[in-house]
């Protein structure tokens, strides 16, 4: 796991987010526009050329590998490449997760980029988002948990649009945390999941000069 420390202030995090979040949102718009565009083939080809130019520009300076999850000394994580919540990741819806002890909740808007069956959310996307949420619920005490087993039950089709999701810890047993999660539309639960989350055997929390107690740690931005 990547736990590199980046010694920056919360103000600096906010400054960086104020730059990358609008960019990521524009890329999300681009993805949606490409999926649904009905302009001519010539205009699609011209769009490709313009996008290729932007890609070449961004490639001039690239981080090797993935983004990872850097932490500040105060233990604020920056999982900005994360597939479900990453501030720099246009693949992420993103989820803006609210956490309290043993609980993680969020609302989201899933559009054309998340389609599986026509007009409905892809089952793998629902599983991805619930996986993130069970991980966040299991980790509200500051210790990370990996998904050991995730069992997903699709109760009825989830239409694309406004949705909410919730994950709640239902029990703990040694390094194992049990979490129940649901995804819902306006008419109720469409998908439910049960997870066994496991804190890895040899995991040691990184230490920081000003490491706050677990309950006060902000796990990510
Ligand atoms: C800097 C700090 C950060 C702070 C906090 C930040 C958090 C901010 C939120 C992040 C949220 C991200 C959410 C994304 C969630 C993913 O996507 S995680 C990625 C997908 N999961 C993986 O890649 C996990 C891959 N597997 C592994 O790494 C290892 O198999 C595991 C799961 C860590 C377990 O390994 P281990 O510690 O060696 O486990 P082991 O000692 O064999 O077994 C311990 C217990 O667990 C049970 N067990 C083991 N494997 C399994 C399994 N697969 N299923 C069920 N039970 C199992 C065993 O039976 C045993 O039970 P008991 O005998 O104690 O009753």
UniProtKB/TrEMBL annotation:
Primary subcellular site in the record, as a coarse category: membrane
InterPro entries: HotDog_dom_sf, THEM4/THEM5_acyl-CoA_thioest, Thioestr_dom
Keywords for this protein: Apoptosis, Cell membrane, Cell projection, Cytoplasm, Fatty acid metabolism, Hydrolase, Lipid metabolism, Membrane, Transit peptide
GO MF, one example: hydrolase activity
Enzyme Commission numbers on file: 3.1.2.2
Transit peptide keyword on record: yes
Topology relative to the membrane: Peripheral membrane protein
Name this protein carries in UniProt: Acyl-coenzyme A thioesterase THEM4
Compartment(s): Cell projection, Ruffle membrane; Cytoplasm; Membrane
Organism lineage string: Bacteria, Bacillati, Actinomycetota, Actinomycetes, Mycobacteriales
Keyword Cytoplasm: yes
Family: Belongs to the THEM4/THEM5 thioesterase family.
Domain Thioesterase: 118-191
């Amino acid at each position: 796991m990547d736990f590199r420390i980046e010694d920056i202030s919360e103000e600096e995090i906010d400054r960086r987010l104020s730059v990358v979040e609008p960019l990521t949102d524009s890329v999300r718009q681009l993805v949606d526009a490409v999926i649904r565009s009905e302009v001519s083939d010539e205009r699609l080809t011209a769009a490709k050329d313009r996008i290729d130019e932007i890609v070449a520009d961004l490639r001039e300076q690239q981080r090797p590998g993935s983004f990872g999850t850097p932490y500040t000394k105060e233990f604020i994580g920056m999982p900005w490449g994360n597939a479900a919540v990453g501030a720099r990741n246009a693949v992420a819806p993103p989820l803006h997760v609210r956490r309290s002890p043993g609980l993680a909740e969020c609302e989201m808007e899933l559009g054309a980029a998340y389609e599986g069956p026509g007009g409905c959310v892809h089952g793998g996307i629902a599983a991805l988002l619930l996986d993130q949420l069970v991980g966040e619920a299991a980790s509200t005490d500051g210790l990370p948990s990996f998904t050991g087993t995730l069992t997903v039950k699709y109760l009825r089709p989830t239409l694309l649009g406004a949705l909410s999701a919730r994950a709640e810890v239902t029990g703990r047993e040694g390094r194992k945390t049990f979490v129940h999660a649901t995804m819902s539309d306006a008419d109720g639960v469409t998908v439910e999941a049960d997870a066994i989350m496991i804190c890895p055997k040899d995991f040691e929390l990184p230490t920081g000069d000003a490491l706050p107690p677990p309950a006060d740690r902000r796990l990510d931005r």
